[in-house]
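Incident log, support desk, overnight shift.

02:14 A customer reports that sequence design results differ from what the structure should imply. Their input is reproduced verbatim below. On-call engineer (initials T.W.) acknowledged and began investigating.
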């Protein structure tokens, strides 16, 4: 079973299920904002149109192979740049 380090117990949690089920449960608990990270996770949220704000940062470190932040999309997503 997956678990978080003890020091993260009140800062993060592991969730499982469909995105819409997880979002519904979190909303029922009063959660309004989520931090979503990781190429495949972000792609899943974008596919379901569940991201309404993005903060994109660059870190000047080579990480090697990885999962692209944005993969192939079924439809174009329109965002407005607020600031740079």
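02:41 Re-run completed on a clean worker. Output:
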């Amino acid at each position: 079973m997956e678990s978080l380090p003890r020091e993260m117990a009140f800062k993060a949690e592991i969730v499982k299920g469909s995105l819409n089920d997880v979002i519904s449960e979190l909303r029922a608990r009063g959660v309004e904002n989520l931090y979503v990270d990781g190429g495949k996770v972000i792609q899943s949220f974008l596919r379901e149109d569940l991201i309404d704000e993005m903060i994109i940062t660059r870190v000047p470190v080579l990480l090697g192979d990885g999962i692209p932040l944005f993969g192939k999309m079924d439809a174009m997503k329109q965002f407005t740049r607020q600031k740079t």
